[in-house]
Write a structure and sequence with these properties.
The strands form two sheets. Strands 5-4-3-6-1-7-10-9 form an eight-stranded mixed sheet, sandwiched between helices. The chain has a two-stranded antiparallel ribbon with strand order 2-8. By secondary structure, the chain is an alpha/beta fold. It is built from four helices and ten strands. The chain binds NADP nicotinamide-adenine-dinucleotide phosphate. The site of NADP nicotinamide-adenine-dinucleotide phosphate has 29 residues, from strand 1, strand 2, strand 3, helix 2 and helix 4. NADP nicotinamide-adenine-dinucleotide phosphate binds near residues 14 and 44. Pathway: Cofactor biosynthesis; tetrahydrofolate biosynthesis; 5,6,7,8-tetrahydrofolate from 7,8-dihydrofolate: step 1/1. InterPro entries: DHFR, DHFR-like_dom_sf, DHFR_CS, DHFR_dom.
Length: about 160
Amino acid sequence: MLIFLWAEGHNGVIGQNGQLPWHLPADMHFFKTVTTGNTIVAGARTYRSFGRSLPNRQNIVVTHQPASNFPDTVIVLDSLDAVRTYAAAHSDDKIFVVGGAQLFVGLQDDVDFLYRTVIDANFTGDTWMPVMNYEKFQLIATQPGIRNDKNPYDYHFEQYQRR
Ligand SMILES: NC(=O)c1ccc[n+]([C@@H]2O[C@H](COP(=O)([O-])OP(=O)(O)OC[C@H]3O[C@@H](n4cnc5c(N)ncnc54)[C@H](OP(=O)(O)O)[C@@H]3O)[C@@H](O)[C@H]2O)c1
């Protein structure tokens, strides 16, 4: 199953200067909880933003670079078709596409399930989520995020499945 997992602020902003526009540890914790034990697929810029391959998950990077630029444990794919082929061959796995925008744009017709964190705040950014066609998805769960000193925004978590 191919799944998108992302967080967005107002206007669908997701990135700024190769990083997240916000610091929201509760969402990072959510990301870790949901993806651990599964597979994550990241574009090369997003993978770079992690600073390392993420532990306890199969890491897949999409890039035109040679595989030798990445650790041995990372699967390197050179096209979105290669991602589709991988997903078809691992259909029982939860495969989380974790960005960035280039992957979300290219795989939006393939994705089966969405995890979206909605942050109710304005951020300066340079990268945006593509406008998804939510008519093709059904909202099946919403959970409020807890606002506190370390997580100083209103935010909530949503799950959608393809209709
Ligand atoms: N808020 C969120 O949930 C979230 C999630 C993810 C990322 N982000 C943010 O979004 C920004 C990064 O997103 P981005 O869209 O700029 O970059 P990206 O999608 O992470 O990475 C782009 C790179 O991926 C590779 N790539 C993309 N499509 C490819 C294809 N069809 N075939 C082969 N390689 C392909 C290329 O790497 P090469 O140039 O190496 O060939 C390309 O330069 C960062 O600011 C990041 O923090 C936010």
